[in-house]
Each structure stands twice: as structure tokens, then as C-alpha cells.
Design a protein that fits this description.
The structure is a homodimer.
Chain A: H1 24-27, E1 48-51, H2 66-86, E2 100-101, H3 111-118, H4 128-131, H5 140-153, E3 165-168, H6 171-182, E4 188-193, H7 199-204, E5 210-215, H8 232-244, E6 249-255, H9 267-279, E7 283-287, E8 316-321, H10 322-325, E9 334-338, H11 341-350, H12 358-369, H13 371-400, E10 412-416, H14 426-438, E11 441-442, E12 444-445, E13 456-460, H15 465-480
Parallel strand pairs in A: 2-11, 4-5, 4-6, 6-7, 7-8
Antiparallel strand pairs in A: 1-5, 3-9, 8-9, 10-13, 12-13
Helix pairs in contact in A: 5-12, 6-11, 13-15
Chain lengths: 502, 502
């Protein structure tokens, strides 16, 4: 299926993961290679897929090791699109016909608030302890602040402890470290798909760990209440499927709120998944980087740390970062919360390579402890702006007759454009993506998220009104030029399917 | 030889590296386990040793992978000593009988200068681009500044280029990334020993790369002009020895100025080593983190970037950081300079996991461009203080009749205490180290640096006068209580052996 050079293709590899579209949260999903075709076989009904990114990459450099070449390939494939976008980036005055980026999941709505807070005089503190070698778990003053912060915002039944906190330079690093300390080379994590595709490289580049996709689909059947619903049955099936292919699964990754769906798991669902993991002695990595970006009150978000009694606390590891909830992906702050001291220690040992500046640790502590500003200024304003942008894009999509999910969390809408693909193939999805790009608007196609149904796109709405409306205008132009070839699929029409924000 | 649990001991392993004393630049060399004995066999005359840190580690955690357990072991073994020191840290007022740290290689002499500079208003700039996803190679404004900075201070024959710069959060990360992209699992780098022992874990924890030690000794024989002199002959011998054990060597690590020796390589030596590497198609990683900490004018330091024509520029990679030369190991800034774009790109791809904050990138750029402050304030004062501290310790050691090398660079003196070891064993070296610690002064024993001659210690002098004199007083007490059992060895008496700072 793939036209990329195959390197020692392994028989068990049914899908190499979304390797072709890496880094879409940092380059706007522009890293797409048309020749890369790695969706699961549409003809088979398998509900899982084992991804081995090492099975394919581009031409070798004689200076690099084989893994060095794979690592470089991940960059190059992303770089291709990155260059496309950055060579023609939209600027209101300098390049008004440049590309509008509705692909990168960044919150660009609150720089005014953040710039003000980060420029206050309490932020610039320089003392010897901050300039010297740190404790690689993070300075105690910051870990204490993180524990208090998570206790409050995750609504933990008891105060969380600084000893269970490890801070580092972002959740990408945390995925890398956890994959390495929990798995042997070639072992795997389960992950429900569609999922934030960069996880593929985060667990693979250093850790050589694979992902086993638990494929979800949009059809609402049986006991399901919404599209792309994860169930324990699907998890069991994927786990058995991996085992049948000789792949050892060591854990389950849950992203909650979900990216790209925008849904949140109910406490009951969470508990079921944690019980499933406990039965199989699987670690659970719960990535909650959008936990404060739930902008619809009725979404009913619950952190894993809010649960009264975790089924398997020693194998439950929560991740959070400032990238999304504080719109600062460039600040590089992430944190692990785990009761397992072996895991915390092993991750801390790798934090020699994921350390963040003492000066930034001071800034983060100041930010996290400023509960007045967060509660009375930042969060209300941020949520209001997110909601307004979401409402605007929702209405635009509705006017276009395009179905989409309404999750009420995150910076994106998961949009169903399947009716614009005559044959419903992945190649057509890429053609449509190219048409958007040719019309100077960047979206992320479903393939980026390992979605098994071609035709879904993630559209990021957390941008300034001017850019957002121009971007939507360009989306509209492409779709209006392109007659739909079918009605909306039954599962996604006529109204929005999720109902989570009703 | 080792009493630590052996895990799949490999026949080719003659020395597991200084695994017992990791992280001594971040915890003061306190991570020493008396039961760990990993020096090369004194009875054999081999001038090399292949280190496989995976061959030994402590008890397993059921929650971690085998590599996770090794990673945790590296932390625990360091932590043991770290706790000892930090539980009883010296404080002039609060704990005057606490431990004085002359083990950690940090420059504590210039916090006043640095605090002043970093507190200036130009340092706190918050703009959207700094808060958004960066180019993982580093912001262009910083890479341009680094290129100008290195051009000037390394005296490059032509201006260096921003395209050849990759910035990340410290040289530890850079070792990790380079090891991974240049070597397959189990391959190796040559490194002259004694060497900064943390390199062992930097290339191993993520990269599973080994070090092949090129053992140097203190005897000045043949054409040698100073103790611990590296020659091409020794490099060739180690390379052949590794090959004979089936270990593939991919590169050579040179630390210049040398840690722990304090020497610098002459341009002629550098060129010879680079020619050797070229003959064998080896990469050369030149770690120059102490390049601006040469406090003796006559030391004659030359950066690898100052050479007129590199023998193999595509395999020559220079490393620098702010940790030592700007006394800011907690700031987490390091940089790679390489003409090899494949290597730069592959390292940049891993920089997703080694990124530093946009705010810190701004601060570093401001610092590096402030040539007036660096040249007229910081460097002269820093060098004067380093020199004064070095002179003080040198005189103390001379008064004690203790030989030592005078390198004229770095923060440390390599001290010959062999005459205090009755049998000249590694166990006695550890006993002496314990005696120092019991007398509340922390030094780093030669084992930490994989020195094959027991009895050498690294003593860090870059501390405030009060702490330094108290530390030296405690050193003196231990040595005066301990009669020397032998004369100073011929190579190191009566005067200082190196003569490099004469």
C-alpha cells in the first residue's frame, strides 16, 4: 500500500502509524506526503492495527545510524509541509493572501492576557538556586505548586502530593520517557483512534515503542450513544488482536478531553477503561492537556485524579502541560502525576534530558499559584473566547450543511467531509486537503489522526476572529466549488451527533 | 569484581563504566556505592576498556521495563550520595558543620554578576512567537546569535552559520541525541579516560550506546610531555581492542578543555586526533563546555572551530553550553555546531524532547549579544576569581606536599593522593573518599572518571572563599591524620607535572 521505501517490512505490520503527518500540532499538519498511504485496509473489518514506524522511511544518510535515519525522516516528512506553510504564512498586512493555519492546535486567543501576566515583575527572579543544577524531578517549590494546582482543578478527593509530581519540558518528553521506562523495545501501547498523531513519534523516536490502534468509527450502533465511542469491548478486541500478532501491550493511552474529537470521557467510562487495564495489568497514561480548555459547562469533564478510588493507582499516570490550557506551547512545561515512585524515579532519571530552566520553573510556580488571576481573569475570558470562536465556526459549518461533532472541549472541531469524496478513499482525502492548501487554508486530514474513515478533518478554531473568518471563507470556497457526491452519512445527520454540549 | 547484581553479563565487558558514580556534576559526586567496583583490572596492561552499563543494576521494579530499571538504578545510585550531601548541606549560619561540596563542577563565583545581568529589563520579553511552538532547531534569532558568538570566541577562520546551529536544553541532551542518531544500539564511542563520567549515562540511558575507554596514565614516558597524555597510538590501540571484542566504534569524544584534567589540547594534537578519526570514518564529538573558563592566558586554548581546514568536517561536531562558562547549569542551554545537515536535522528531530522555553531563548540571545558586558565585565572578573581560587588551592596543596596537575582551565584540580593508599587499590580510594565525607567535605574520586590509577581525586575550587577555605581545612585534616605510605610517584614529583600554566 505504501509507496515509501520499505525497510525490513515486518509481517505483523498492518499500519505504520500516522508517520506521514507528524508534528501537526507544531507545523499545522503540513507534513503530508501524498505518496504516503498508511490507513488500515478498508476491506478488512479489523478493529485494531499495530503501527511500526520503523518499517518505512526515506533514503539513508551515510552519516546516520538506521534509527538516526528514521528520526531524520520524521523531521523531513514534517518539514516538507512546514516549509509550504511557513514560506507563505498569512500576515494581515505583509501577506494577506498567505496561508491561514487552522491545522495547528494552539490557542491564539489569549496572548494579551498571558503577555500581561508573564510581564509582571514577580516573573523575573534570578537567584543562585535557580541557576544551579536542579533536582531533576523539578524544584520542590514548583512541585508543591503543581500538586496544589492539580488538587484544585482536578477536584481530587484528597490533596495531591509533591512527591508524586515530576516536572519536565512538555508532554512530548513525558510520552518519550514513559514509553522507555515502561516498555521494552518493540512493545506497545493501546490507543483509541482517531488520536493526536504525534504520539506515534513520541513513543517511538527514542523508545522504539509501537502503538496499537483501537479503531473507532462514526456509526452509532448497538449501545453506543455517540460516534467514535470507545468501549471496553473494542479495547479487549484490540488487545487480543495485538497478542495474536505477537505484540506485547504494556499500557493504554487515553487522551481526555479527546483530541481530535473534542469529547470528554464520563467518570463511568473512565472507570471501565481503568478496570479493563487493571485486569490486564496495563499501565494507563491519561493525557489531560486540554483539561482547562473545556469551554462548555455541561460537558461534564472529570479528571482521572478526581476518581474516588483508582482501580490500579500504581499503574495510573496522569499528564498535564501548560501548552494548551495556558496557550504556551513554546514555554515547554509539562508534568507527570503518579503514585508509583518507581515510575516517577525512572522518569526523573531521564529528566536530565528533559529539564526546564530554573527561571521557567519560577515563572510557572508564580503562574500556577495566582489563583485569582486564573479564576477571575484568565479562565473566564479564555472560555468565553473559545466558545465564541467555536460557535462562529459551528454556525458556518451548519450553514454549509457539513456535519461535525460538538465536543465542547479543546481547540478544534472534528468535521465530516466524507460527502465530498466520490469514492471515499484516503487518496481523495489528501486531494481535498491539497485543495484547501491551494486555497490558502491549512486543515488536518483524518489520516493525521489515524482515522479509519477517510473524509474527516480537524479544524482548529482558536484563532483571532479576522484570521478565523478568512480561513472559514476559504474553506467555504473549496467546498462550494466541490459538489457533494453523497448525502451525509446516516450517523452524522441531520443534526450534530454528539450532544455533549447541549 | 562487582558485587552488584549482574544482569546477563557479557563476556566482552571488561568495565561497565563509571556507573557507580553518576551525575557527579549535578550531585557533587556523592553517588558512590562502596560495593561497586568497576575499575579496569589492574593486573592487565590493556589500554582500553569497553563499558556496558546495562550489564549491572540493582533490584527490579515489577512496574518498569528492563531498561526502565537500569534508568532508575542510575538515579538511585546517584541519589544515595545526593541524599547524604543534601541532608547535611553546609550553610554558613544554619549548618556551619554541614558538608562542603568540592565535588560538583559548578562555578559559584559569579552569581552576583549573572544575577545583575539576567535581571535587566531586556531579559523579560513576552511575545506570541516565544509562546508558540518553536522551530525545534531553535529560534532563528538565537541561532544567529550563537553563530556570531562562536565565530568570535572560537576564532573561526570564517563566520559560522546559523544553519549549522541546533540549540537545546543542555549538553547532556546533546550527547543523548548524537549517540542515538549516530550509533546503533550497542555501538560505541571512544573516550580518553579519565573523563567526565556522566557521559556514560548520557549516551546509554536513551541511546544504549557504550563507551570504549582509552586509558591514560600519569607516567610521562617516551615522547610524552605531560601526564595522562592522549596519543594517536593509544587511540589506535583502543579502537583495535574494541574491534577484537566485536564492538563497533562509531566516533570519538574529546572534551576540551579536559575534565577532570584541566588541560587543553594543542592545535597540533587536535588535528592529529581528527586525522585519526578521518582515517577510520569516525565522528568526532568535541565538547567545549569549558572553553571560556580558561583562566590562564598561556594555556593556549584552541577551539576545534578555529582550525583552518577540518580534516572531516561532515563528521566533526562541536558542543557548547552555558552551564559552565556562564555558571548557569540550571538555565539548561546547550548548542550543537555541525556542518553536517543530516546530523543537524536528526538532532533537531529529537529536540522535540530537548526543547527550551522561548523565553529562555530570548534571554540567551540577549546575553550572548552583550559583548561589552561579557568582555569588559563578566569574563575578566570571572577569570580573575577563578585564578585566585585556583592559586589558593594550589598553594594549600603544595603546602601539604600533595602533587597535582595544573591545567589552567575548568573549575577543578586533578589531585594525586596515591601516596595515601597503602596498597594502591580502588577500595582504598573509596575509603579515603569516605573519610573526606565523614570530615564533611565532598570530593570526586578518580573512579568517578574511570581513572585506571586509584588515588586521584578531582577537587573543585570555583566556590566562594569562605566555603573554599573551610573545605580545604577539612581536606588538610584528613590528610594530616593519614600518614603517607609512600613517596610521591616519580611522574608527579616534586613539582607540578603539567607545566601548562607556566
Amino acid at each position: 500500500m505504501s509507496t515509501l521505501p520499505q525497510k525490513n517490512p515486518r509481517p505483523l505490520t498492518s499500519c505504520p502509524g500516522p508517520a506521514c503527518t507528524q508534528n501537526m500540532d507544531s507545523n499545522g499538519g503540513a507534513g503530508l506526503r501524498r505518496e504516503c498511504c498508511c490507513e488500515p485496509d478498508q476491506k478488512q473489518s479489523k478493529l485494531y492495527g499495530v503501527g511500526d514506524p520503523a518499517a518505512m522511511f526515506s533514503c539513508d544518510s551515510p552519516y546516520l545510524s538506521s534509527r538516526g535515519n528514521i528520526i531524520k525522516w520524521f523531521w523531513d516528512s514534517a518539514e516538507e509541509g512546514y516549509r509550504t506553510y511557513h514560506m507563505d504564512e498569512y500576515d494581515e498586512k505583509k501577506n494577506p493572501s498567505g496561508i491561514i493555519n487552522l491545522g495547528t492546535s494552539e490557542n491564539k486567543l489569549c496572548f494579551d492576557l498571558l503577555s500581561w501576566r508573564l510581564s509582571q515583575s514577580d516573573m523575573l527572579q534570578v537567584e543562585p538556586a535557580l541557576l544551579q543544577y536542579p533536582n531533576w524531578r523539578g524544584h520542590l517549590f514548583l512541585r508543591e505548586e503543581v500538586a496544589r494546582f492539580l488538587s484544585f482543578y482536578c477536584k481530587s478527593p484528597a490533596p495531591l502530593k509533591a512527591d508524586n509530581v515530576v516536572v519536565l519540558n512538555g508532554c512530548a518528553s513525558l510520552f518519550s520517557a514513559l514509553a522507555t521506562v515502561l516498555c521494552e523495545v518493540g512493545e506497545a501501547f493501546l490507543i483509541p483512534a482517531p488520536y493526536y498523531g504525534a504520539v506515534t513519534q513520541h513513543v517511538h523516536l527514542y523508545g522504539s515503542v509501537q502503538l496499537v490502534c483501537v479503531y473507532l468509527d462514526s456509526e452509532v450502533s448497538g449501545l453506543a450513544t455517540h460516534p467514535f465511542q470507545l468501549t471496553v469491548g473494542k479495547l479487549e478486541e484490540a488487545l487480543q488482536g495485538a497478542a495474536s500478532q505477537g505484540v506485547k501491550v504494556k499500557g493504554l493511552i487515553l487522551i481526555n478531553p479527546q483530541n481530535p474529537l473534542g469529547y470528554v470521557y464520563s467518570p463511568e467510562e473512565l472507570r471501565e477503561f481503568l478496570e479493563f487495564a487493571k485486569r490486564h495489568a496495563l499501565h494507563v497514561l491519561v493525557d489531560e492537556v486540554y483539561m482547562l480548555s473545556v469551554f462548555v459547562d455541561t460537558a461534564g469533564y472529570h479528571s482521572v485524579l478526581s476518581l474516588d478510588r483508582l482501580p490500579d493507582p500504581q499503574r495510573t499516570h496522569m499528564m498535564w502541560a501548560a501548552s494548551k490550557d495556558f496557550g504556551m506551547s513554546g514555554l515547554r512545561f509539562g508534568t507527570l502525576y503518579t503514585e508509583n515512585q518507581d515510575v516517577a524515579t525512572a522518569v526523573a532519571s531521564l529528566c536530565r534530558y528533559h529539564g526546564l530552566s530554573g527561571l521557567v520553573q519560577h515563572q510557572m510556580a508564580q503562574l500556577l499559584r495566582d489563583r485569582d488571576w486564573i479564576n477571575q481573569v484568565y479562565l473566564p475570558e479564555n472560555h468565553a473566547r473559545l466558545k465564541a470562536a467555536h460557535t462562529y465556526v459551528s454556525e458556518e459549518l451548519a450553514a454549509l450543511g457539513v456535519p461535525f461533532l460538538r465536543g465542547g472541549a479543546g481547540f478544534f472541531i472534528w468535521v465530516d467531509l466524507r460527502k465530498y469524496l466520490p469514492k471515499g478513499t484516503s487518496e481523495e482525502e489528501m486531494l481535498l486537503w491539497r485543495r484547501f492548501l491551494d486555497n490558502k487554508v491549512l486543515l488536518s486530514p483524518g489520516k493525521t489522526f489515524e482515522c479509519k474513515e477517510p473524509g474527516w478533518f480537524r479544524l482548529v478554531f482558536s484563532d483571532q476572529p479576522l484570521r478565523l473568518s478568512l480561513g472559514m471563507q476559504r474553506v467555504r470556497q473549496v467546498l462550494e466549488d466541490q459538489s457533494p457526491v453523497a448525502k451525509n452519512p446516516p450517523s452524522c445527520q441531520p443534526q450534530d451527533p454528539s450532544g455533549q454540549d447541549k
